[in-house]
Each structure stands twice: as structure tokens, then as C-alpha cells.
Design brief:
By secondary structure, this protein is mainly β. It has one helix at 2-20, and strands at 30-41, 45-58, 62-76, 83-98, 104-115, 120-134, 140-155, 160-177, 180-191, 194-206, 211-224, 231-243. Helix content is 8%, strand content 70%.
Length: 244
């Protein structure tokens, strides 16, 4: 009930903000879509599918963004049916509105996350906070955010957890040359029941007007406070991307 109420408030706030800016120019959606496939064949056959999206749409003083990551892996042992070994997705929407100083902004961000083998199997959260954008040099853009929110999660074993949380995030985007951009992203989300942190570095290279190659190295660490064993994972992915 609390989550539904918060989501309704967010939708209402976004609608009012959009109505207030109806007379201002609205840019088209921009960003990247990426798809990846990894195959391996040894004692077992493995197929891993990855997909990601990083899209945004800018109004005069606000921005709506969507980030999505999907990671699925199937393993087939000779003589058996293929089994789903990895099942993860992470969907993050974010509405930012510039403050008086356009370098600073407030934001509201719902998030849906699933990790079939994680401590929190499924989690949905609503976060809100403040952030800033800084450009120390022309090719480099830094974004910093800090906020708080509320989360409802299904814990491993079937129990439900309802809790407040705090979150911080940082992102750097550096245009190395036309058609080549390096990105570094860090996010930390902490509640009474879980500490979840990700670090990601990616290189985006255009090979045509819309097509490109994305190389991403990511580190993910989950630390359930009810367990003495933290989990950590490092991945390297190469995928084909499409720029809007």
C-alpha cells in the first residue's frame, strides 16, 4: 500500500511537471540499446544473453531517463534439459527537475530489481533525492546523487521485507574523440537488511551512424547483514549497440 501510494505521488508529480512544460520544446529520446550473446561448449553447453538500455529525454528544465539491464544464462548438460542458471534484471526510471542553479537538480526514481539467486530475489523501491552535474573540462561530465527511499523485497526463502534505504551514485562520461565515449558508474544502495553496490566501466565505440560496439566490465557486491558471507561477481561483456 505504501509503495503504491508513493508511485501514485510520483506519477502525479511527473504529470504536473510535464503539463507545466507543455509549451516548451521537447527533445526526442536519445541514448543506446545493446544486445549481447555468449556461447561456450565444453562438458556443458552455455548460452548467455545480455541486454541493456540507457535512454533519456530532455525537456527545458527536466529530464526523464530509463536504464535497464538483463542477464540470462542457460546451461545444458548432455542428457538433460537446458536449465536457467542466471536470471537477473534491473529497471530504473528517473525524473530529474533542475533547481534554480541548473547544475543542481532534484529527482524521483522507482526501481525494479530481480536476482533469482540473490539474497533479495525481487525488490521494488522508490527513491528521491538531490544531485548535481559538473563539467571540470569540456569532454568530461560528472554527475553525483544522494537520496533516500522505501523498498519492498521478497527475500530468499519467501519472506517479505519492507524497509527504508539510502542511496548514493556517481557517474563520469568522457568523450575521448568523436564516436568514442568512456563511462564509469558507481552506485551504492543500503538498507537495514542489505548492502548492494555496483561499479561499471564501459567503452562505447561507433562504427556507423547508429551501430556501435559496447565493451563493459562490471563488479557487483551484495552483502546481506543476516549472513556472514558477502557475494561478489565480476563480468566482462561485449555487445552490439544501437544509438537513437
Amino acid at each position: 500500500m505504501i509503495t503504491r501510494t508513493l508511485l501514485l505521488c510520483w506519477v502525479g508529480a511527473a504529470h504536473l511537471a510535464a503539463h507545466a512544460e507543455a509549451a516548451t520544446p521537447v527533445q526526442a529520446w536519445t541514448g543506446d540499446l545493446a544486445l549481447g550473446l555468449q556461447l561456450s561448449d565444453s562438458e556443458s553447453k552455455t548460452r548467455r544473453y545480455t541486454a541493456s538500455a540507457d535512454l533519456s529525454r530532455r525537456h527545458q528544465r527536466s529530464e526523464l531517463s530509463l536504464e535497464f539491464d538483463l542477464d540470462r544464462e542457460y546451461v545444458k548438460i548432455p542428457g538433460n534439459q537446458a536449465e536457467l542458471d542466471r536470471d537477473r534484471y534491473d529497471l530504473r526510471l528517473k525524473y530529474r527537475h533542475d533547481l534554480q542553479d541548473q547544475a543542481l537538480f532534484g529527482y524521483v526514481s522507482p526501481r525494479w530489481r530481480r536476482n533469482a539467486s540473490g539474497y533479495y530475489v525481487q525488490a521494488k523501491a522508490l527513491r528521491a533525492g538531490f544531485g548535481g552535474r559538473f563539467r571540470p573540462v569540456e569532454p568530461l561530465l560528472l554527475t553525483l546523487e544522494a537520496g533516500a527511499g522505501y523498498r519492498v523485497a521478497r527475500v530468499e526463502g519467501g519472506a517479505t521485507a519492507r524497509e527504508g534505504l539510502g542511496t548514493i551514485a556517481a557517474q563520469a562520461r568522457w568523450k575521448l574523440r568523436p564516436g568514442v565515449e568512456w563511462r564509469l558508474e558507481f552506485a551504492h544502495e543500503q538498507s537495514r537488511g542489505e548492502r548492494y553496490r555496483t561499479l561499471e566501466s564501459s567503452l562505447h565505440t561507433r562504427i556507423s551512424e547508429h551501430l556501435g560496439v559496447k565493451v563493459r566490465a562490471s563488479y557487483e557486491r551484495g552483502y546481506p547483514f543476516s549472513s556472514t558471507d558477502p557475494s561478489a561477481e565480476t563480468n566482462l561483456d561485449v555487445s552490439l549497440s544501437y544509438a537513437l
